[in-house]
Amino acid sequence: MDDFFSLWDTPSDIDKEIAGRVKAIRKRKKITQKELAVKCGVSYGSLKKFEQTGEISLSSLTKIAMELGLAGDLKELFTRPVYSNIQEVIDDNR
Predict the structure, then answer these.
(1) In this structure, is the dihedral angle defined by the CA atoms of residues 80, 86, 91 and 94, taken in order, positive or negative?
(2) Which CATH number fits domain 1-71: 1.10.260.40, 3.40.50.2000, 1.10.268.10, 1.20.120.450?
(3) Predicted structure pTM score
(4) What pLDDT, in 10s, does the model give residues 79-93?
């Protein structure tokens, strides 16, 4: 994921980038915002706001991801270890 986001991105920048990716997937699947909202049980207003601003609750993002077939991607978040130094690598592998 580090490849996609620079050190200079703000949390809002990252949120908007994720929202843009979700929106592109929704459009590629030819699903309207209203249709997706109904299918996944997220309010239309929340979905619309998410696509515009990147702001959404984690629960709603999970519902959207599941409906779009992205649950596996969401479940993979934070599974790759991030080490600050070699000692952490050594300690983790004991």
Answers:
(1) positive
(2) 1.10.260.40
(3) 0.82
(4) 988 888 999 888 888
